[in-house]
Amino acid sequence: MYQQMIFVNLPVADVDASKKFFTELGYSLNPQFTTDDCACVVISDTIVAMLLSRQRYADFTAKEIADATKTSEVLVCLSAESREKVDELVDTAIAAGGTSSREATDHGFMYGRTFDDLDGHTWEIVWMDPAAVQG
User: What is the pTM of this model?
Assistant: First the structure.
């Protein structure tokens, strides 16, 4: 059965620093699609972050490239398997050079924290109680 994937393409100032940051979070790089100007970060079987140098990113758009440290261009939200995993990933991101970008949100059945990566891209990590989600 076909499983649709998502490829999030983000411009970065320093590809090597971004490679180090995301591997410190526990993600792997796909060497087949990782070069000096692009890092293919495997988040899951169906989610990939393509971290492109600003020059390489410009090959895909005629628009001005946002400076994510000054303006928001995307909010990437990833699920986590538990509240503890939310804290673990966000704490690791902050220790690796990311910044906490807002206070934790706790609604009991849903818990989330947010960090900005080295280039200011916002990543929200959320746990939701499966019993609270209606299908």
Answer: 0.90
